[in-house]
Amino acid sequence: MLYRLIAFLVLIILSPVFLVVAFSIFMEDGSPIFFKQKRVGVDYTFFNIYKFRSMKKNTPNVATHLLINPEQYLLKIGGILRKLSLDELPNLINIIKGDMVFVGPRPALFNQDDLMALRVVTGVHKLKPGITGWAQINGRDDISIEKKVQLEQEYMYKRSTLFDIEIIIKTFINVLGSKGVSH
Asked: Within a domain: residue 12?
């Protein structure tokens, strides 16, 4: 419950950023401002994740790395949003709703069967997905699915408040340097 309250307070504090981003997206490509996508939650349940839309309206609903020439779909503001991970700010809504937490494995796409199969084998599927996680700060887009799940399993065994704080601090450092972002 505490993390929901913290997410709500962060949402209020960052509301000016939300407004600027929303206005920028609307001016470039109209509405909708938010992108909603089916993701895998705790225990292989499904929920809709909310993000700021960084891609044009006609973009196929697949992982960015599966698109041919993904840059053709990226909004001008979208590159900045992704580089600074501002597109993820609406994930705070998912925390308030109880779908996510601050630290945990990133929620898989509904069709990432290979990733989810490994998470089930290792027990990682029992963790609530997070905005950031141990795998995120140790490679993000630059590591294999196997390495990602190995890091998520390591997180599962080492979970603690101090470890979560360490991950959150390292996330901010990585975001400022755009470390591990390939698209």
From this structure: yes
